Amino acid sequence: MPRFSLLSSRRYSILSAFTLVELLVTVAILVILTALLFPTINSSIARAKSAQCATNLQQLGLAFTLYSAENNNTLPASYVLGNNAPDNNWWYPISKYTGATPMAYNWTTDPNSVMACSMRPPFHCPTVKNSDPGFPFNAWISYKMNFQFRYQTTENASFVTTGVSRSRIPSPSKVLLLSEGRVTPEFFDYKTNDIPYGLQYPHGGKLNALFLDGHVESFTQASLMIGTTWDDMANHPFDN
User: Fold this and answer.
1) How many CA atoms lie within 13 Å of 213's alpha carbon, on the beta-carbon side?
2) Do 214 and 68 form a contact (C-beta atoms < 8 A)?
């Protein structure tokens, strides 16, 4: 029977163990690989969030279509000025068409309040922080509706309670319906420094935008400033 002495066991143990140098080299390689992969991982996460945001907008676009089908082909008002009730915004009337839990007639205290539902898909972009010191008011808002759908309903947009008829818009694929912004339910500017009525570009300097026909596109602020791009998409929905 072969003998396995204590001396040979020690030699085997020494030969098979990692030396300190080998261990440090292994750790250094792992650190380098992590540093190389980290930007790729972050980029993949950012792309996934942008894709989820685009999916949200497509789902909201379908909800707008279903709402119109049951409301004489009209759109909801983007905002009902002078009304502080939970239904003074476009989120509330379309919520029951999204496939998610409909919003309760309550701003903040119900589990399905306007604010609570707006913090969940499809009303919530995954890049938005519900508590953000940069947005001290209504930080949870992710998407805004084009102000023109309220303003063009009547000469006095302060008293609008319903949106325009889709039949008034000749080219839905050219008209911007929703995009990304904070604080208020509607936009009329593409600039980021106009926080209440402007837009935000949270996806690596880009935003996702839903057009009235239901398709979604991505834009940088610079691309919206080219020529009459912004005017054509956002300011003249009834002229396209």
Assistant:
1) 10
2) no
The answer to whether the beta carbons of residues 114 and 107 sit under 8 Å apart is yes
The residues spanned by each domain of the chain are 51-235
Q: Identify which of 78, 129, 69 has the alpha carbon closest to the alpha carbon of residue 96.
A: 69
Sheet of 216-220: strand order equals 186-187, 143-146, 176-180, 206-211, 216-220
Using CB atoms within 10 A of its CB, is residue 84 exposed (0-12), middle (13-18) or buried (19+)? exposed
- Residues 138-186: tens digit of each pLDDT: 888 999 999 988 877 665 656 677 788 899 899 999 999 999 999 999 9
DSSP E strands in the chain: the ranges are: 143-146, 176-180, 186-187, 206-211, 216-220
On whether the CB atoms of residues 146 and 172 are closer than 8 A, the answer is no
Q: Which two tokens stand for residue 33?
A: 């690989």
